[in-house]
Design a protein that fits this description.
441 residues; alpha/beta; eight-stranded parallel sheet
Length: 441
């Protein structure tokens, strides 16, 4: 037993040493990586809004303003000095501090440039970052967010919650803030279809509302369907029970409060139906997995391993799934999910939750296992006028490319790959895997 303990400690020390000793990025490799035109798998860009127009409120189905304030990690602080370099890139900011006077000066400059670029502003941001295409997770697109530079990822959680959600709202303060947004979105989807009352049977709801909405969205250019379900429930989707789900739907569609167990049966059925239809329509399913927003968020409920029954379902093998945010903190578990033929993951948000060195360790473990399943993403969103979505996109983009270079440099130094292979892997992660997965031109 003592020998086994000593051996384990030796292994842990070696792992720890390798992590700490991760090499700085090879300068030439980093320069080449910075030249790659990236495909951003996940972001929340803001549409162009002219002076006097209503502010953009369609950037997310579950805006964080709906829940109680919660602590932000270090790098997302509005006073993070890293954002100074973003201001220098975008707005020629010539200061090295974040004083109130200089921020006010910055805001004037930003406003002038925004008005000068007009609807081209989102494209201008992508050009600055060398991002070819950004997948916009939004309720609806808008001015300035047009293909091919911006592709639409719609939200579909609302479709799996057609019954009363009052019990869930009472169970979790975050749920109480988020569920009204989903209820509002479902009404919007019904209005889009010209439907005033939910159908009486589950079969009708699945065909006339769910499938019809997915088909309508694909016609409008949707490239993938996004689930933020872990903000609303656990990701433990079980194999559907059509008969029981139909009974639950019929009993409560006109009123009443389903038990959590009964409602879960219906949600599981509708999730499976959406996933299967996504495969038929050639749309990927994006699933949020990240211990992030909300002080009542249940991190264990976002473990990607909970999705294994879904990934293993033979009926869903024609559907491609993307584990958005790479399951942080469950990044090692994601590797085992890469063993499924239809599972991918992006490392968006890790790009601002982690500093490049820590992110490089995650990426190296992925690159050494399944390099063809890795997708780049920024999760860019707005914190306000000073730290807006371009600043978050800059932070993520810079961190991602640096971390990728560090991971590949370590692999080169250890003799695992050649320099040519390193650049090939970088291109796969930043763009080629996405092009293949989404069949982009």
């Amino acid at each position: 037993m003592l020998k086994q303990i000593l051996l384990l400690l030796t292994v842990l020390n070696v792992v720890g040493f390798n992590a700490v000793a991760q090499a700085p990025p090879d300068a030439q490799l980093l320069a080449e990586i910075n030249e790659i035109k990236a495909i951003d798998n996940h972001a929340h860009p803001m549409k162009y809004v002219a002076n006097g127009e209503k502010a953009d409120d369609e950037y997310d189905a579950l805006p964080l303003e709906a829940i109680d304030p919660f602590p932000l990690p270090t790098r997302l602080s509005p006073v993070n000095p890293e954002f100074i370099n973003a201001w220098k890139l975008f707005y020629n900011y010539d200061h090295n501090d974040m004083s109130e006077a200089h921020i006010n000066e910055l805001l004037v400059t930003k406003k002038k440039l925004y008005e000068r670029e007009g609807e081209n502003f989102p494209n201008w941001v992508l050009d600055k970052l060398n991002i070819e295409t950004m997948f916009a997770n939004r309720v609806a697109m808008g001015r300035g967010l047009t293909p091919p530079r911006f592709r639409w990822v719609s939200f579909v959680d609302a479709l799996i919650f057609p019954l009363s959600n009052e019990t869930a709202k009472k169970s979790n303060r975050d749920y109480a803030g988020f569920y009204p947004g989903e209820e509002k979105l479902l009404k919007r989807y019904l209005a889009d279809l010209g439907i005033k009352t939910l159908p009486a049977t589950l079969d009708e709801y699945a065909s006339k509302v769910v499938t019809a909405t997915l088909e309508h969205q694909k016609q409008q250019g949707v490239i993938a369907l996004k689930f933020e379900a872990n903000y609303l429930r656990l990701l433990d989707f079980d194999k559907p029970d059509p008969q029981r789900a139909s009974l639950v739907y019929a009993r409560y569609i006109r009123g009443g409060e389903p038990s959590p167990a009964d409602y879960k049966v219906l949600q599981d059925y509708l999730f499976h139906h959406i996933a299967k239809e996504a495969g038929r329509l050639g749309l990927a399913i994006h699933i949020h997995t990240l211990d992030a927003a909300g002080s009542y968020y249940r991190a264990t409920g976002g473990n990607p391993l909970l999705l294994e029954p879904t990934f293993n379902d033979p009926e869903l093998r024609k559907t491609n799934f993307v584990i958005v945010h790479g399951g942080l903190p469950y990044t090692r578990q994601v590797i085992s999910m890469f063993g499924k033929p239809n599972v991918y993951a992006d490392f968006s948000a890790q790009t601002f939750f982690l500093y490049p060195r820590a992110l490089s360790e995650v990426l190296r473990s992925w690159l050494e296992s399944y390099p063809d399943r890795i997708l780049f993403g920024t999760d860019a969103f707005s914190f306000g006028p000073a730290v807006d979505w371009p600043e978050l996109a800059w932070l993520s983009n810079t961190s991602a490319r640096t971390a990728l270079a560090m991971a590949l440099t370590g692999m080169m130094n250890d003799g695992e790959i050649t320099r040519e292979r390193a650049l090939e892997l970088a291109r796969m992660a930043l763009r080629e895997n996405a092009i293949k997965l989404y069949k982009l031109q």
